[in-house]
Amino acid sequence: MKQVNVGLIGFGTVGSGVVKIFQGNSPVIDQRLGASLVLKMIADLDIDSDRGLEVEKEMLTTNADEVLDGPDIDIVIELIGGLEPARSFILRAVENGKHVVTANKALLAHHGEELFEAAADNGVTIGFEASVGGGIPIIRAIREGFPANRFQAIQGIVNGTANYILSKMAEEGRPFGEVLEEAQVLGYAEADPTYDIEGIDSAHKIAILASLAFGIPLDLEAVFCRGITDITPLDIQYAREFGYRIKLLAVAKRVGGEVELRVHPALIPEDELLAKVSGVYNAVHVIGDMAGPNTLIGQGAGSLPTASAVMGDVIEISRELLKGVKERLPPPTRNRDPQNGLRVRDINDIETEYYLRFTVMDKSGVLSRISGILGAAGISIASVIQKGRREGGAVPLVMMTHKAREEDVQRSLREITRFDFVLEETMLIRVENERAG
Question: Which domains does the chain have, with CATH numbers?
Answer without folding.
Answer: 3-134+303-334 (3.40.50.720), 147-299 (3.30.360.10), 350-431 (3.30.70.260)
